[in-house]
Amino acid sequence: MTAPTETLRQTPLHALHLELGGKMVPFAGYEMPVQYPAGILKEHLHTRAKAGLFDVSHMGQAFLAGADPARALEWLTPADIIGLKEGAQRYGLLLNDEGGIKDDFMTTRLAGEAALYLVVNAGTKETDFAYISEKLAGKAELTPRPDRALLALQGPLAADVLERHSPGISKLSFMRATRATVAGAPAIVSRTGYTGEDGYEISIDAKDAETVARALLGHAEVLPIGLGARDSLRLEAGLCLYGHDIDETTNPAEANLVWAIGKRRKMDKDFLAGERIMDAVFNGPARKRVGILPNGRAPAREGAEIVADGRVIGRITSGGFGPSLNAPVAMGYVETAFATDGTKLDLMVRGNAIPAVVAPMPFVPHNYRRAV
Amino acid sequence: MSEVRYTDQHEWIRLDGDIATIGITKFAAEQLGDVVYVELPASGKKVTAGGEAAVVESVKAASEVYAPVGGEVAGANEALAGDPSKVNADPEGEGWFFKLKLADTEEFSKRTDQAAYAEFLKGL
After folding, report:
1. Where are the beta strands (DSSP E) in A234-351?
2. Quick one: pLDDT at residue B1?
């Protein structure tokens, strides 16, 4: 058991954030930079145009070992983990007993290694780790790695930059991962991220974090990027923020995350609440997560009511301003009858009805480097 | 010669005759970060001191702007609709929000002057 504490934790890059002029705010129990002196708009646009470095060391990293950790983990997620090839990474949903979403996470099978490498969200990592350990007791053993830092280098020039510090890494394709050396430090590098751009996530020992971060920031193409732009980038990319767009009360069908259920898994339904989730998939959920573009410039924020036919038919779960679109963007849940692209809705902002339209996501095209 | 006063909500008020021009201070603009949208009051609307008069939105969040004095709205800075970044670039000039015709300029004289506002900022 961990005792509740009001003290904010710091990542291994805390001193560097302060040196870079980061505006520090509390986030998921950590003191994190929401922005640097460039500001959220410039940081966002820079990441889409060049490359941005994000400290995501607050996220939870762990290894899952055992006789067959992939088979064990499949009880808690509908992702195809057994079918994960060596050197591949996959997005998964961590389910609760009711089929709600406890978290979303990444699983990697590193070449030649029996243990799976997991990355979970910062705000849920303690509960996730306790939950996985308890649910898989006797079948698999989870080892959290708070001694590791995690950096994300994102943007169209990320590969050019990282190649200079890790020769050959530009050949890694999207959703693949490998052990590598980055700026002299042993690392786990994956070609992933949460901005919709090409890029990498780099897991290193905490003691190497500052050296690696400084090496990457030493290039004119790279700016440090705070939580503010991280949020606007992922929203434009149509990606869910755990605790907002998905949580324990949403199931994969209504969250529009059926693609995160493996083909074999859909048939076998051999995961928590498998029958219930697949019923929702086959019968269609009562509500659905959709992208929403408000008219005009006023952003509709999380919690704003969505109105159609003179009644509330849903609620915004993420909303803000999309710097690349130079317009407000949002996502939220609506009754399924209103979930078709092009459906006209009103968003209630400060008592005024703002016209909006259901729109396909991502709002900004993904720029991933898939295998050719 | 116009006079400028401040509030502890980080608004500034410049009085010319019985017309007050209102905006947010440099400190407020820096705290907000990049402004992406400003909602301004309609001309003719009557506001009381401390009442909600405008909304300023950064990428992250929306913040209310309260009327620092009572009066009738006598115009708003329409240029902010097309270019809200003026609030960050020149908060106490081109980034002004709205004008009020004051019923009572006494209320204005009671607001904090520049020296006192500067002291207030030091204490934050």
Report:
1. 287-294, 305-308, 311-322, 327-335, 344-349
2. 57
Domain count within chain A: 2
Instruction: Say how far apart CA A119 and CA A200 lie, in whole Å.
Output: 14
Q: Which residues of B touch A298 (CB under 8 A)?
A: 37, 39, 57
Q: Are strands A51-55 and A222-224 parallel, antiparallel or unpaired?
A: parallel
Q: Tokens representing A32?
A: 């994190």
Q: What is the DSSP letter of A77?
A: -
Q: Give pLDDT, residue A6.
A: 67
CB–CB contact A298 B34 (8 Å): no
Q: Give B22-40 pLDDT, tens digit per residue.
A: 999 999 999 999 999 999 9
Below-70 pLDDT ranges, chain A: 1-6, 372
Interface of A with B in 42-81 (CB under 8 A): 42, 44
Question: The domain containing residue A152 runs over which residues?
Answer: 14-59+147-236
Contact A298 B59 (CB under 8 A): no
Report pLDDT for A2.
47
Predicted local distance difference test score (pLDDT) of residue B103: 83
- Which of B33, B55, B59 lies nearest to residue A320, judging by beta carbons? B59
Say yes or no for a CB contact (<8 Å) between B57 and A39.
Answer: no
Asked if A41 and B61 come within 8 Å (Cβ–Cβ), the reply is no
Range B3-122 classified under CATH 2.40.50.100 = yes
Last residue of one domain, picked from the residues A178, A201, A236: A236
Q: What is the pLDDT of residues B107-120, one digit of tens each?
A: 899 999 999 999 99
CA closest to B80 among chain A residues: A297
**Which residues, in sequence order, are CB contacts of A155 under 8 Å at separation 6+?**
A46, A47, A48, A49, A50, A51, A52, A195, A197, A198, A199, A221
Residue B60: the pLDDT is 85
Binding-site residues on chain B for chain A (CB distance < 8 A) = 33-34, 36-37, 39, 55, 57-62, 81, 84, 88
